[in-house]
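To close the section, here is one more complete example, presented without commentary so you can practise reading it yourself. The ligand is adenosine-5'-diphosphate.
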Amino acid sequence: MIRISQLHKSYADNDVLKGIDLEVDQSQVVVVIGPSGSGKSTLLRCCNGLEVAQRGTIEICGERLLDHGTLLAEKALNRLRTQVGMVFQSFNLFPHLSVLDNVTIGPRTLRGMRAEQANEQGEALLAKVGLAAKATAMPNSLSGGQKQRVAIARALAMEPRVMLFDEPTSALDPELVGEVLQVMKLLAKEGMTMMVVTHEMGFARDMADRVVVMDQGSIIEADTPDVIFSRPKEERTRSFLQAVL
Ligand code: ADP
Ligand code: MG
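Output:
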């Protein structure tokens, strides 16, 4: 579903991604961990064309989003982007729209879905994330955990084939983290293909098919959670885990 090869990205003279190779198969959950500044967010943002890497190739569902450093043309790019849902640390809901309208605006404006159908789908998605009762609420009245669940429902409304999560629980009070992870676990169990940047090592241990460890723009190690958490090969992995666990 995702195939990244030899991805290089720099900001001015700062090499942020130094030749990333990574594949995510259908229904796999890949968790990306690593110290702050190691390039995790940049890697995710490259996967839906929010950032353009200077070199390398990214295939999403067999289509080349980036072909040896050249981004797909705008029309095809926008179409491919709808297949890649993204959830950020900051929820980025539209404050002036109701919860339901936040979820339906994508399908209505980008896919021309009729309001009735969009609302029906939106209500089903809100039920799925446990927020059926909040359809008419405004985002400001919600807790952080509820906002993030709306953000997930909004991403799902575009019927993506891949979901990217960038530290989805990092902005939440500790008691609200679980409700968001629970929704992510549900998606994983349903077979959603997911790439997740998180410091929630419990989630990584329980849900990841593979854990990818990044440091200074490179993947230093990638393996099953069992290997990464019990017997990592790299000293840098060990010291990172010691710092976060
Ligand atoms: P992580 O998500 O692992 O913390 P990032 O991908 O956010 O890492 O950042 C990796 C590096 O890229 C950092 O050195 C950061 O300062 C730099 N960086 C990220 N975004 C930008 C940007 N828009 N402009 C310049 N430098 C950036
Ligand atoms: Mg980041």
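Once you have examined the tokens, check your reading against these statements. Residues 174-189 form the longest helix (16 residues). DSSP finds nine helices and eleven strands in the chain.
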